[in-house]
UniProtKB/TrEMBL annotation:
It is found in: Nucleus. The keyword rRNA processing applies. Belongs to the RRP4 family. This is (rape) hypothetical protein. PANTHER family: EXOSOME COMPLEX COMPONENT RRP4 (PTHR21321:SF4), PNAS-3 RELATED (PTHR21321). The keyword Metal-binding does not apply. The lineage of its organism: Eukaryota, Viridiplantae, Streptophyta, Embryophyta, Tracheophyta. Residues 92-172 form the S1 motif domain. GO terms for cellular component: exosome (RNase complex); nucleus. One of its GO terms (molecular function) is RNA binding. SUPFAM superfamilies: Eukaryotic type KH-domain (KH-domain type I), Nucleic acid-binding proteins, Ribosomal L27 protein-like. CDD domains: KH-I_Rrp4_eukar (cd22525), S1_Rrp4 (cd05789).
Amino acid sequence: MMMRKIQLPFTQTQKVRYERAIERLQSLSSTVNSDASVIVTDTIPVNHEDAFLKGHGTSEVDGELLATVCGVVERVDKLVYVRTLRARYKPEVGDIVVGRVIEVAQKRWRVELNFTQDGVLMLSSMNMPDGSQRRRTSVDELNMRNIFVEHDVVCAEVRSIQHDGSLQLHARSQKYGKLEKGQLLKVDPYLVKRSKHHFHYIESLGIDLIIGCNGFIWVGEHVEVRDPVMMIDDQKDAEMISSSSSTKEQSHTPLETRQNICRIGNAIRVLSNLGFTVTVEVITETLNLSNSKNIDIHNMLGSEFHVVVAENEAERRREKRKK
């Protein structure tokens, strides 16, 4: 268990409470899994009688499985690998990523992805706004800025990794595309675990949460994903209706929704500061904790709430261990 040091103006009491919570977390981690943290050449205990697969960060030498990098041992079925800590984003095909457009070029957009190189989203790999499936024309290329412009936040999927390390993206689904009415957060990529679901809808708050594998997280107002055919019908109907009043109404985000976005955003910032894994379950629990303690949104980033979250996480893991 590796905890980062945070620079906050702790009082003496808060400092003692925080250090005590961190000690409990470290002891729980070492007790539950003694080989969790490894350095180079450390032996990783495995049952040689059962078949196992050597993953990233491991090597078999003289019948022993050794770690070739520093990190945490992870086991997925028969696969054993070492997840490096505080490492850069390491892309895989199929990753859900969130990024920011930095350039509109010929038939492509360049997207910042918190990676050593920028991602490339080709016009041909982009779902058209009207939902139609057709070949891209010169007119589409001229109208690229009607889809994305610089500084737009977008969601896409890693399509392929080129020989030079650059990433090819695609957004051929209605769940991908431009993200609006929210805020973009950045955490260390190692705090995000790959899972089957990276799109989350917190129904009670009306908030969409997209946890990108690259460490960019989007928190925004909920948007309904509609069927392409329905989108075309809606577009035809919209041409017959005056949009003066409706456009203003649609562009307005209710105060309560904006407060929920800020509260979730601050919960993620606190988890990131403490070095805790960022999942929708932990985010929701941190959110509920701030509400139960009657902590204002702007006070969530203060010293006291960081201590409370650390103590709550230690208690949660202790209860989980009992079960």
